[in-house]
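tool_call: predict_structure(chain=1)
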Amino acid sequence: MTLVALADVPTVDIDPSELSSAAESLRTHADATTDSAERISTTWNTLPTSYEAPEAGELLARMSVVPRAADDFADIARRIAAIMAQLADQLALARAQESTLRAEVVSFRDAVRGFRASSGDMGLGSSADTWGPGQFLRNQELISECLSLRTLRDTVIEEARGDLAPIGQPDVVLPVIGVVGASPSAPAWAAEYDAVADGIGFAILERLSGGNRRRRPRSACGP
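tool_result:
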């Protein structure tokens, strides 16, 4: 049997601490997105008190898609962060096992080489099949531990990939029939946003650019 070598010990290339930090940063951004969405919603809900126009109600209804889309984005970000954090914990365990296993392999190889050298010095002969007491079985155990660590590393990474695979576009589902710029492949919330920009949004900008922030009721005596 071949003597176990450091090359047999699988390497955990992903830094668990960096992955954990990235997950925490993503959670922070998700929370900030939620806070911003709440502020946007609160601000837009004050529109009826500062702007009166036929399209104001429709605009307010359409703008409700913004906080919903933001909430969906934040939810996706939190799901990704949770997967990343779990993977970081699992890889931290794998990396700790890697460090321990490397130290054990180095120590074991030194012991085997020492036994073989002493056997040769005593004229007992020495070869790749020469093992000290218990060394043959220990060599098998170390090779098995290397294989187990490789399986652990590959499994947790593949599981994380599998968990990430279903995460895609936000789950906001809105009717897009007749919406300007809508297409079968476009996310519904994006189509709703385009409708605001292409239609009602320009009407708002046109009035505001003229300095008329609030439409005044016409007098019964004249224009």
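agent: The radius of gyration is 33 Å. Proceeding to next step.
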